[in-house]
């Protein structure tokens, strides 16, 4: 079962959010917007609490989002997985045996079609569909690729979470602490 049945993947942007999140019963969490110098202590803190970090490579300040960065993160910090828009980062993450999540931005039909071609090459473990409030697109991407979906972006209510899951998403990422608390009993 994906993420041990956890349908909400809390995404944190700072230490205050992380401290609050560590008190909740989530096993997997997403680390956004950090600095390369903070990655090791944050991942170690998360691990010390029995939780697993998914690092968003593109949002780590001071680190280029390329294959070398992915290799470094996988080897030096050993998170549960990496998230990126870049196919080369996803491929390197898979080579290292970690969860590889490719972000797909649903900007327009052309972007979606280009995304499908990219996904054929990268073959991620999961696709994070952004924005995650388009149930019909969650269903389409899941059906067309056969790859499990995570919905993210613009998730503002419990109904948004439920609709994304009903459309076929395995999980939903959100920075909304109220939603973390609301769904914590299901973690």
Automatic annotation (TrEMBL):
Q: Which InterPro entries does UniProt cross-reference here?
A: Aldolase_TIM, GlpP
Q: Which UniProt keywords apply?
A: Glycerol metabolism, RNA-binding, Transcription, Transcription regulation
**What name does the UniProt record give this protein?**
Glycerol uptake operon antiterminator regulatory protein
Q: Which PANTHER family does the entry link to?
A: GLYCEROL UPTAKE OPERON ANTITERMINATOR REGULATORY PROTEIN
Q: What is the role of the protein in this entry? A: Regulates expression of the glpD operon. In the presence of glycerol 3-phosphate (G3P) causes antitermination of transcription of glpD at the inverted repeat of the leader region to enhance its transcription. Binds and stabilizes glpD leader mRNA.
Gene3D superfamilies assigned: Aldolase class I
Query: Which Gene Ontology BP terms does the record give?
Result: glycerol metabolic process; positive regulation of DNA-templated transcription
Q: Which domain of life is it from?
A: Bacteria
Q: Name one GO molecular function term.
A: RNA binding
